[in-house]
Design goal:
- The protein has 173 residues and is mainly beta.
- The longest helix is centred in the N-terminal third of the chain and has 22 residues, at 14-35.
- A hairpin with a 6-residue loop joins strand 10 and strand 11 (160-172).
- It has one helix at residues 14-35; strands spanning 3-5, 11-13, 67-73, 77-78, 83-92, 96-105, 111-114, 121-123, 129-136, 144-153, 160-172.
Length: 173
Amino acid sequence: MAEKENKRGTRLSASRVLILLSILLLVIAGYNLERYSGSAYFALTGRPLNLDFWSSKPSFSQALPVFSGTETFGRSTLAPGDTQTITVSATSNTTISAYFEAWITSPKGKQVWKSPMINPVSFKAGKPTTTTYSYALPAGLPPGVYTGSLIINSQDTHTDYLAKENIVRFKVS
């Protein structure tokens, strides 16, 4: 590794220089986010990073709505060319508008169908809201077990209120 000698005669390795530059870039990014009122999201969870330690501004946090939801299929076994009915039902603890997003995944993990996100759905606090979709299985669809998943998104689609993957299955033979 390349090493440089500084004015005091000690040596700085290239890895130490890179670590110091990384820390400096993080501090600059945090400052810019705070200054321009931006939000940073942690990649693994999709949740906002809390940058309050650099801020003297008061911060307010709004509680997210709590959802419970299910997805069901009309039939458990189908053949290519048949039509599957997908019913998505969810209940929120608050009155809100949000998007239902449902999809079907093949046995190899590839998404083969996704619901359209045309209009947000209105939820009334404590009352179930249900949407039904139809999926016409293509003639050449390979046999196997297919799974269904569900997400309920905020109207700006930046926040997932509920995410359930591979919660229901059907077989194509």
